[in-house]
């Protein structure tokens, strides 16, 4: 094949409208209504044809049209207004971060994620994890947080979905052309692309870096599609979640190790590194390698130095959802790393193992992240508890409730999902800054200011728009499938713009139980066939290409939708993406979610629906455990968990039908003399009042900053001062502790107290502890006390530290500790005594292997 010389053609914008380019290349427009309307005004057809991508549409708009608007005073005024707003947004110093961190040392955060869902026009996401990451960046921008995102640029993105004649999911890929997307290739001062490399077996793989501007925040995307790479290496970043385990380990080496090297090459030196799921866990190895190589630290010293600055968020509630690689594969791709880190093979592999000495255990990426991070969290309160159970073996003998895994509940970027019509209504009655005020104030009451009639009319218009859009999508689906003309024409008859509309849209994993609604089909037929109180359902979602069980669920829903008895009331929309989600969460009346508890880590689609006044009907799992208050939606069941899943499906499907028949349908169709469903509208407002302030990424990112990022930066700075002297000292202290801990034992516990203790009294406890050569100041002797459960064990206890009293008489290495344990409540209580390590620079008192119980 002849060599092709390439060049890039860029849109030629007349000088008066040159500002369009900067607006198009900053994803600030994705949450700014006035900016989006500017591009629609420029060319509505090009807006739709490019999938709502301003960067691409500027290359499609005719030169004649560009010249026309360059002389259009109205358009130029609109452009000038948007330009000023963007410039003001970028330049302002009055941000939450600047005010919260005033007078303190500036920090820098790197946020690593395998996917980022920022907008449908940049398809490098698959689902909730990516959307959460995208919203994280948007809120970091809004709060002024100095954060840089790091991900992969997938040249083919995630798969697109269509269904064959049997309703079976098929997949195809659309190439992503970086030159028609809001991307900028990162270059050096000489204008040459910045490239870094990672080592794979027998070769180096080169990586280039694209920059995406998200308001004030930059997202760096790594790309291996370079001519100097082998064809198979160019494909490392081709598809999101494509290929086998070997392909995945190569992607994660590029993301974690390559991402670290890219930041360094770009002159970005973060203080804090946030790993959003375990895909980027190898960055911890690269951070350790840097200190071993550049500062001469040992492996253990370097690990002590980097751990305080690492944050890890786990998103999966089941072990099967975590990446685990066979040891043979790890040694093939990372076989040189023990030498680079100056540690032995066993120590290196132990970083990814629950049981360090089990040679059969694979390398677990979540375990690697946990063992190298100071802060670990799940994404809802319930998920935090589930994660404590999942990872409890990493901390033997530590009570599950004290496992150092906490939680920060997810949120959504409200302005990215609230409809333009509702936004205008809020602006009219709650002010221009309603979304900022909602995110900043727990007591925000904005929705209560909205007149019932106007709110309902906005909602009805959104439902009508959803029905019109769904019919158009169905016609396109039927045509692509080669359906009969009658079926294509029938698309215009489905759905009723005034009927109660329920949406179910999410990944079609089996635990999400998309077909729970179809357990008793005759009961559903009666509901959808009620002419006075009709009900209808819209489904959307993708199954993983290798998940045949999930594909069967889709097929079952589609075949139900083809049944003539309820064809007009059941719809499945193909190729679920952010655009589809936006129509659904803004237009349906009820958002249905029925996962098998406790398998929903968080779930954010219901938060987007609630922000639009859509009422959630959900299992008490994930975020809904915290969001539901009895007045803002409905709960299916009471949070029960079952061992018999078939029985669970039966019980909870009946509970769902009862809710629909006895509560949801009657409330929706009960209208006053003015035709308004007053009770329904009241619940809509309650949903917005209770959910928007709490379940927003503005609140979430503030939590990460105040609880993790800022303390982590301070701790990391302290540990790496003076050529990492504190890290070296901490490791030497730990090493001595490990050498002597076997001698630690509790000799005697003296707690003279009556059998019955009055409420408000204290238990006086004195303990003698044999510490051998250890300094008493290096340990914390605690009483762990709490209410007893039915098995006579402490269910959820609380520690109380005892004070050092001095050396015990007549025994070498024995010391006395004493104190009081308060008894503020009545009931049956118990206590135990334990010894833990104590040091001001410890990330957690719970150091594996260093705990002794009496």
Please sum up the structure shown:
Helices cover 40% and strands 17% of the residues.
Termini gap: 77 Å
Poorly predicted spans: none
What structural class results from the helix and strand content? alpha/beta
* Named CATH topology of the largest domain: Rossmann fold
Mean pLDDT rating: 94
Report the portion of residues in β strands. Answer: 15-25%
Provide a descriptive summary of the structure in words.
47% of the residues are buried. The protein is α/β, with parallel strands linked by helices and 854 residues long. Strands 1, 2, 5, 6, 7, 8, 9, 10, 13 and 14 form a 10-stranded mixed sheet that branches. It has a 6-stranded parallel sheet with strand order 17-16-15-18-19-20, with helices on both faces. It contains 31 helices and 28 strands. Helix content is 40%, strand content 17%. Strand 7 and strand 8 (217-223) form a beta hairpin.
